[in-house]
Amino acid sequence: MSWQLKTFDELTKNQLYTIIKERINIFVVEQNCPYPELDDLDQNSFHLFLQEEGEIRAYCRILPKGLKYEEVSIGRVIVKEKYRRSGIASLLMKNAIAFVEEELKETKIKIQAQDHLRHFYQSFGFTSISEVYLEDGIPHVDMVKC
């Protein structure tokens, strides 16, 4: 497996295009949720992804502390549909958390999790810090890992 972690400026045009395409395919099309996917946070974030045979199979965005929240944040977590339930999502989160802790030297991470994935994130030490709320029509919960 070829995990890559890049800043926005390090992404190739094809990687950026493929990442955005997959995010839109999942968050906008698959989840039937029209929302502004391009939010001006990508340019200052880290992009962790698994690319095999030219396709992005898994991806997440790591936002440095102070960009969106006081804490570092992991978001836009996706796994392409045909690779779900294969363990890739767990590897993605382990790699993202390791980068935050080892490279950014941060211990507190905040996420906005879709509520149906709460138990998945709890398995990595995240705990709920909010009630369930609707974000773009989808139940979410704020969670932190300390």
Automatic annotation (TrEMBL):
Keywords: Transferase. Residues 6-146 form the N-acetyltransferase domain. GO terms for molecular function: acyltransferase activity, transferring groups other than amino-acyl groups. Pfam families: Acetyltransf_10. This is GNAT family N-acetyltransferase. The lineage of its organism: Bacteria, Bacillati, Bacillota, Bacilli, Bacillales.
